[in-house]
Amino acid sequence: MHANPSPLTARRSGPLKGRVRVPGDKSISHRALILGALTVGETSISGLLEGEDVLNTGKALRALGADVERTGAGTWRLHGVGVAGFAEPAAPLDFGNSGTGCRLMLGAVAGCAITACFDGDASLRKRPMRRVLEPLERIGAHTLAANDGRVPLTLAGARDPIPIVYEPPVASAQLKSAVLLAGLAAPGETVVIEAEATRDHTEKMLTHFGADVRVEPHGAHGRRITLAGQPELAPRPIIVPADPSSAAFPLVAAAITPGSDVLLEGVMLNSLRTGLIGTLVEMGTAIERLNARVEGGEEIADLRVRGGALRGVEVPAARAPSMIDEYPILAVAASFAEGTTVMRGLKELRVKESDRLAGTADMLRVNGVTVEIEGDDLFVAGRGRARGGGLVATHMDHRLAMSALVMGIASEQPVKIDDGSFIATSFPDFVALMGGLGADVA
Ligand code: S3P
Question: Is 325 a catalytic residue?
């Protein structure tokens, strides 16, 4: 896939106007398919993100014996195999660009007495899997072959999974989720103790499907999650809300283009995902939450955003888990603010779809913005406007690609990207949706 790079250019555009709905949440979409596949009976899903990452998770689940069927636009039907019920796949499972798909499925497979090979594209082949394999081995899985803790790797699931008490060394919802998914197959209680709370979609959805999950506060910012093993998961319909990490792109595009007035429909506002929105408000953006409601167990609202002047702010490290995927687009907003924005504690950005810390700094630099990386902190010297004119290297990273195009919409000169094809991993209609708001991207 993506044999042919597809360059794109964004040009300075007038105020953005309109009402749009961004696609379904990527984290929830992966989990809906995986938990549906671990349930006995029929699970129906609406609003599923039909991006390549999620489609690859669906294909992997089919190869493991689940019945996964698309019944319409965003609507899917699954017949699951039950906890620990996966069949051994005939061929390697290909997760493409997706760390979430790969890591969550490592956990789901680790509780089954089967052997499976996990692989992905050149970006995924560089990403650390040891962090996940280490607890999964404590549960009883074995890594048979791994390329220095990376994919391609072969995992033999546990015959008799052991419940563990696990304290992740990094704040990672993928790591937490892998352990909980493996723990489903173990007798007794699997416990994950997080020093910093990360997105809790796995816990919420497990509860939705009838598992016994207890969540208690732990320390100042953490949580202790206790899962009772070997539940019988009962099928329940799932409605996937709009992805705040995708909404981030039209949100910032409107924020940095004076005179813009955009309404984003039905955006999920789980407080473990809203760091960017709070930060933009601190920077001076007018964001209104309208028609707030709860759907499918998640808080959602329509967001009205209006463009205007922004000021630089300091973003503390403790905020990182709630906006971990939003730093590239926040750095774009920071370029158009007056004054310096400091973003602290960005170590995890180095192991995303690309080294996003370096990639973000390079994206701004080629477009005339002054940036510094000091340790794990990023400093962006905003001047209220950006020159643009750069060609941005996207390194197989969808979020760098979309961030650079948003930058081009408000820069003095056009911004080009070397390859827009990876945008399809998370936001297939990005170019059309932005065009509908009046952005010049082609
Ligand atoms: C995700 C967790 C985050 C995030 C990723 C999606 C998830 O990764 O960056 O895009 O769905 O659990 P980490 O858990 O590695 O921080």
Answer: yes
